[in-house]
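In the design runs reported in the main text, the only information available to the sequence generator was the tokenized backbone. The following block is the verbatim input for one such run; it is reproduced so that readers can re-run the procedure and compare outputs position by position.
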């Protein structure tokens, strides 16, 4: 099922629904990554200030990161695989928050 529009919130909600329906994790993670990309595309170019903090919506970013972490391994792995990619993605999602408000 496809989402209508390019709203990051819709991609996020679609990911949550897919997760609840038991859809494979790759699809859910793709939806979460798309939500992140569309969300940060809206914020791009804004100077650091009150409007930037309003638009970046830290709570939304944290919710996406938490949803991604569900699929992260609980134990470190010596083998480089998709789980290490996932952890890198979560780190890059949280990066703008830590740089804006250290």
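Verbatim output:
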């Amino acid at each position: 099922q496809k989402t209508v529009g390019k709203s990051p919130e819709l991609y996020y909600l679609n990911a949550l629904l897919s997760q609840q329906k038991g859809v494979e994790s790759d699809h859910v993670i793709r939806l979460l990554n798309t939500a992140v990309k569309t969300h940060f595309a809206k914020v791009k170019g804004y100077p650091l200030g009150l409007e930037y903090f309003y638009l970046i919506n830290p709570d939304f970013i944290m919710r996406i990161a938490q949803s991604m972490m569900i699929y992260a391994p609980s134990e470190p792995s010596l083998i480089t695989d998709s789980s290490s990619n996932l952890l890198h993605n979560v780190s890059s999602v949280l990066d703008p928050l830590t740089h804006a408000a250290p």
